[in-house]
């Protein structure tokens, strides 16, 4: 029993030791002290309870058991805490402090009043036993107050009109709704933004005051909103922009060798001074939305900040204003550039299908190639993957080599031959020219050479909508199979695979992607996310081949420059439903589907670069990437050598259906300096072929069978949130595996007979092994 469940036994023992070690912390305290082990708030609904808990002092909240155990290890001696030379490791014990208890009760009471519970009482109750303290903040809420009559008055009729027409109708504070001070703060903020956008440069939030009367009607809070003038004799003024000055300055500590001078752009009426001598005014002024003779507008000022930072050429942007009299402003843009050139070296270890390897890369960047913050990137990457199943020394265990070099030129505007309305209002438009050269070789199997050139446009039509269009992508590929491997494939009847991979081709494709709400993915809100991608290759060439009577090969493929060209159409949809459940709890539903249809020159089989795969860290996590499907396909039908050499390449599909459900929650607020989050999930789906081929059996999509071919997995994950990035470890457990016959797909029933099950599987699938649990380590959320 112990041998079979060794992992679970060891993990349980470690957790118990950790628990008892932290519980013994109370014995290290002095007489009269008590360790806070439990804090609770009773008498309130769950949603209010979670938010009210934030007002309890952190110094009287229970310690993290792990951090407290670490602290005890380094700071105790002879059964007591050290009085001197304490090490700042872990977390010191949170000792009961009556003053902090009373302060926390007051803070909770004030919070409840902001939610309309003006008659609430908070009574702290402390129970101390054996130097351990339990604190219960007992709340008597009473009935909440509702918004009553709402009256308003503004000293300035113009401002009152803006308030009545644009702010009040959208206010969250409505008569009959439960009182919430957050609604009033939101209304004040909206008025501030509207007036700042209308030129009221001097307006501040404090000019709006709200009087609350709770004595007129029982359980009702009447409001009196007043918007005051600066003084009794002056009105709020609307300001115009007079002159605009732009200055590009050197970073702190650097001095310029150029003589100070300014240039006046007569078309824009901008005085421009570039101490660095590297930037042109016209590309920068495109995203300076405050210009001479315009009314001051806070919204345009914020847009200027956003777009100038997004150009990636400036480390600091400042926009200041100076009054010149007669309600006019001079506007000053001050830009501090980033270093012109940068170099970044990256490296990572990879684990895939029982193999391991590494990737190293280098990226050289020039951030201002033509004087308009255009960015040039030169990237080089080399990766190698080792297969421990291969015989010989380490050099002989190299499974594949991958070398790539690419050049990207990113221009911060849309370079198109006609007028366009994309001025960067909602996001910085970009034009990217890319070229990539790749050399890939897999041991004793095949090698590929790729050369790709593309033109891409990105623009925004709303704060939530992003468009990406690649009108032209030119690709040239030469694929060669290893001669011995090719002969083996031919002998065993896999001619289709030989024809698909032992070839060269030319591709001329176009792509379009639309994304909705991508900026909200890391927020705790209720929202929907949507992405759709379309790709097509060979349509134009297909028409030209008919018109120009292009040559065809002996196999009937149409040729361009003596090379067959790709023909396929592909689409993919990703929809997600996010719901915030309060605090740090979130529930996510996701559907991901796609179809790729090969035709013409590719009518028999889609090239694997454009195919779908199942499993992986961002899909069905109980399976490794490219080890699921298609359909009921089982690799036991392959000869052993082909199972080794065809790793992943025979488990591709042209149709994908996938669904995920994930519940996310906070585990520890402070774990080794970061936040520790947890997640439970259920993943379902598979991939299929659209038509039978001679490589894969039982993999074709059939409407009356596909539901029985759905794979199902579940699992648990932990995420270390470092604010700037998230480190994720997910453990997926297989529940239903479609590679087996109908009555044997629920593999979860074999979990406690796993040794015998795995041995039998290995005998029929050598060298593949079966794992019930799949670990996925990565950076970032799965979706």
UniProtKB/TrEMBL annotation:
Q: Which Pfam families would you find in this protein's record?
A: Omp85, POTRA
Primary location recorded for the protein, binned into one broad class: membrane
InterPro entries from the UniProt entry: Bac_surfAg_D15, BamA/TamA_POTRA, D15-like
Q: Where's the POTRA domain? A: 92-140
Q: Where is the protein situated, by its record's location annotation? A: Membrane
Q: What is this protein called?
A: Uncharacterized protein
* Domain Bacterial surface antigen (D15) stretches: 368-744
Q: Which GO terms describe its cellular component?
A: outer membrane
Which residues constitute the signal peptide according to the record?
1-26
């Amino acid at each position: 029993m112990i041998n079979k469940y060794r992992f679970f036994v060891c993990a349980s023992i470690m957790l118990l030791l950790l628990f008892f070690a932290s519980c013994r912390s109370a014995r290290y305290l002095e007489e009269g002290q008590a360790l806070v082990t439990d804090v609770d708030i009773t008498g309130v609904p769950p949603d209010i309870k979670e938010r009210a808990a934030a007002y309890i002092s952190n110094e009287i909240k229970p310690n993290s058991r792990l951090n407290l155990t670490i602290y005890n290890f380094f700071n105790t001696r002879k059964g007591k805490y050290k009085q001197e030379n304490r090490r700042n490791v872990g977390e010191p014990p949170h000792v009961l402090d009556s003053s902090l208890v009373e302060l926390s009760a007051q803070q909770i009471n004030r919070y409840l009043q902001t939610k309309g519970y003006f008659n609430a009482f908070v009574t702290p109750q402390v129970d101390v036993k054996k130097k351990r303290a339990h604190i219960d903040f007992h709340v008597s809420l009473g009935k909440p107050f509702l918004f009553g009559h709402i009256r308003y008055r503004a000293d300035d009729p113009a401002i009152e009109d803006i308030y009545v027409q644009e702010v009040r109708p959208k206010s969250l504070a409505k008569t009959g709704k439960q009182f919430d001070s957050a609604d009033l703060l939101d209304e004040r903020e909206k008025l501030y933004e509207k007036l700042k956008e209308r030129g009221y440069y001097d307006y501040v939030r404090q000019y709006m005051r709200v009087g609350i009367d709770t004595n007129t009607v029982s359980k009702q809070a009447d409001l009196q909103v007043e918007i005051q003038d600066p003084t009794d004799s002056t009105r709020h003024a609307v300001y115009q922009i007079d002159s605009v000055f732009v200055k590009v300055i050197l970073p702190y500590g650097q001095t310029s060798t150029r003589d100070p001078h300014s240039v006046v752009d007569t078309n824009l009426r901008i005085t421009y001074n570039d101490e660095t001598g590297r930037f042109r005014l016209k590309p920068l002024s495109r995203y300076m939305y405050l210009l001479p003779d315009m009314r001051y507008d806070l919204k345009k000022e914020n847009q200027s900040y956003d777009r100038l930072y997004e150009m990636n050429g400036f480390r600091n942007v400042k926009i200041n204003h100076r009054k010149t009299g007669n309600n006019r402003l001079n506007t000053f843009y001050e830009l501090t550039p980033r270093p012109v050139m940068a170099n970044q070296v990256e490296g990572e270890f990879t684990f895939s299908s029982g193999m391991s390897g590494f990737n190293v890369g280098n990226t050289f960047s020039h951030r201002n190639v033509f004087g308009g913050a255009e960015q040039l990137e030169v990237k080089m990457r080399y990766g190698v993957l080792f297969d421990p199943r291969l015989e010989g020394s380490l050099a002989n265990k190299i499974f594949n080599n991958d070398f790539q070099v690419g050049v990207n030129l990113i221009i911060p505007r849309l370079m198109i031959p006609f007028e366009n309305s994309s001025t960067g209002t909602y996001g910085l438009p970009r034009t990217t020219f890319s070229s990539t050269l790749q050399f890939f070789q897999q041991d004793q199997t095949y090698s590929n050479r790729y050369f790709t050139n593309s033109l891409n446009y990105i623009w925004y039509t709303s704060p939530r909508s992003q468009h990406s269009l690649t009108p032209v992508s030119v690709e040239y590929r030469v694929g060669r199979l290893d001669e011995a491997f090719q002969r083996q494939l031919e002998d065993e009847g896999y001619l289709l695979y030989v024809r698909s991979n032992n070839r060269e081709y030319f591709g001329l494709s176009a792509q379009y992607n639309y994304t909705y709400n991508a900026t909200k993915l890391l927020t705790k809100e209720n929202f929907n996310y949507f992405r759709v991608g379309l790709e097509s290759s060979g349509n134009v060439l297909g028409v030209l081949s008919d018109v120009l009577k292009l040559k065809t090969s002996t196999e009937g493929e149409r040729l361009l420059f003596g090379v067959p060209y790709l023909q396929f159409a592909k689409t993919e949809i990703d929809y997600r439903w996010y719901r915030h459940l309060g605090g740090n709890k979130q529930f996510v539903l996701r559907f991901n589907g796609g179809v790729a249809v090969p035709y013409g020159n590719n009518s028999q089989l889609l090239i694997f670069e454009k195919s779908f795969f199942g499993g992986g860290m961002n899909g069905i996590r109980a399976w490794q990437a490219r080890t699921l499907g298609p359909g009921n396909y089982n690799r036991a039908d392959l000869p052993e050598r082909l199972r080794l050499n065809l790793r992943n390449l025979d488990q591709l599909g042209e149709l994908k259906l996938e669904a995920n459900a994930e519940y996310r929650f906070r585990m520890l607020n402070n774990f080794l300096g970061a936040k520790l989050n947890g997640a439970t999930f259920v993943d379902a789906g598979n991939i299929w072929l659209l038509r039978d081929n001679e490589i894969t059996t039982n993999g074709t999509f059939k409407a009356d069978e596909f539901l029985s071919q759905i794979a199902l997995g579940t699992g648990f994950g932990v995420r270390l949130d470092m604010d700037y990035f998230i480190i994720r470890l997910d453990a997926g457990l297989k529940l239903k595996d479609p590679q087996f016959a109908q009555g044997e797909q629920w593999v979860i029933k074999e979990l406690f007979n796993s040794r015998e099950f795995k041995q039998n599987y290995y005998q029929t699938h050598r060298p593949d092994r079966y794992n019930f649990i799949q670990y996925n380590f990565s950076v970032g959320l799965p979706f």
